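Quick one: sequence plus flavin mononucleotide SMILES, need structure tokens.
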Amino acid sequence: MNLDDAMNTRRSIRGYQDKPVPKELIEEIIALANRAPSSMNTQPWHLHVLTGDPLNKVRMGNQSRMMEGVPPSREIQDHGAYEGVHRDRQIEIAVQLFEAMGIERDNKEKRLDWVMRGFRQFDAPVSIVVCYDKSMEPGGTIAHFDLGAVTYGLVLAAWSKGLGCVINGQGIMQSPVVREIAQIPDDQIIMTCVAMGWPDDSFDANAVVSRRRPVENLTRFVGFDD
Ligand SMILES: Cc1cc2nc3c(=O)[nH]c(=O)nc-3n(C[C@H](O)[C@H](O)[C@H](O)COP(=O)(O)O)c2cc1C
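Reply:
Sure thing.
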């Protein structure tokens, strides 16, 4: 798969085959993602790759705390509710996903089930917990930028090898659970996790293609037509 094809066809995958992902393949993907640029070459990222029993404990711990009403506890600052165009785009993708999955607007049970899947990292066979060095705080914005780069590298490299991913903020909502089970070192901050596995092509949400603004709506060219 060439780069254009990978970038154009990649989409978030939320349904996975019950099939393990070889450790060597994950290492290859991480080696590619690890080529990401970072501010002054600081490379502040750390990746914790979970599968099997530890991953199941993380997903069940995360889900049950959310079900019990324990307030979300993340290690990065929460943005709160989105508004305006950001809220519109959030709703747009939710509508696309719910339509694909046949989840009606007023079906609270199915909606809750969907949210719970997110807290369980969509039952993916692998989860990569993405962390950065605590020493980057305060003012960790640049480290956040660096982690975005390495995380996009991960999902793109995985996609080019036939694997699917979803970057999954829901999966680390109860970060103390993740920290304890995955034994995240004290000098690292949990940013997010990436669910990964072989896409289940019969899972309807996997076919959803999120919409984008045309280039001219988000870009200004300055000095080109002078
Ligand atoms: C920082 C971040 C956090 C995300 N968290 C979640 C999540 O918790 N649950 C989920 O279903 N998707 C999550 N996503 C995936 C986005 O919903 C998805 O990227 C967006 O809707 C665009 O769709 P696409 O990836 O298929 O192009 C997250 C993406 C990012 C970048």
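Residues 11-12, 14, 93, 118, 166-170, 192, 210 surround flavin mononucleotide (CB under 6 Å). The helical segments are 3-9, 23-33, 52-68, 84-101, 108-119, 141-160, 175-182, 215-218.
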